[in-house]
Amino acid sequence: MNGKFSLKQLVQLYEEIISVNHRTEIARELRDEDDLFLFLCLSETLGLPNPAYYYTLELYPYMLEKFHEWHLRMGMEKSPLTGFRCC
Questions:
Q1: Is residue 2 very low, low, confident or very high in pLDDT (cuts 50, 70, 90)?
Q2: pLDDT, tens digit, for every residue of 24-70?
Q3: CA distances from 30 to 6, 24, 37, 41, 53 (A)
Q4: Helix-strand-coil percent breakdown of the chain, rounded to 5?
Q5: Residue 41 and residue 63 in contact, taking contact as beta carbons nearer than 8 Å
Q6: Which of 65, 66, 67, 61 lies closest to 79 in space, CA to CA?
């Protein structure tokens, strides 16, 4: 290159500069969003009504790994749900 940057490269550089100091905050926010999504999808198993239960039922096999990571991160050795075993 002869010193010219494309717009895409400038945007990537800008995003990297902005996110350098906020990487842990961004990771925490993403983890919190994942936890909320997991809670909403599994709310039926916790006894809370979930109007989208039928549509989220097919996600259970994919959420099993995330659920296992979640309950270990929360300090629970075994799954707190009797109908949703992961260990």
A1: low
A2: 888 889 989 988 888 888 787 778 888 887 888 788 778 777 878 88
A3: 29, 10, 11, 16, 23
A4: 65, 0, 35
A5: yes
A6: 67
Whether 37 and 54 have beta carbons less than 8 Å apart is answered as: no
Backbone CA torsion sign across 84, 50, 61, 69: negative
Report field, pTM of the whole predicted structure over 0.85? no
Q: Which two tokens stand for residue 51?
A: 């109007």
Q: Please, what is the angle between helix 23-42 and helix 60-73, to 10°?
A: 120
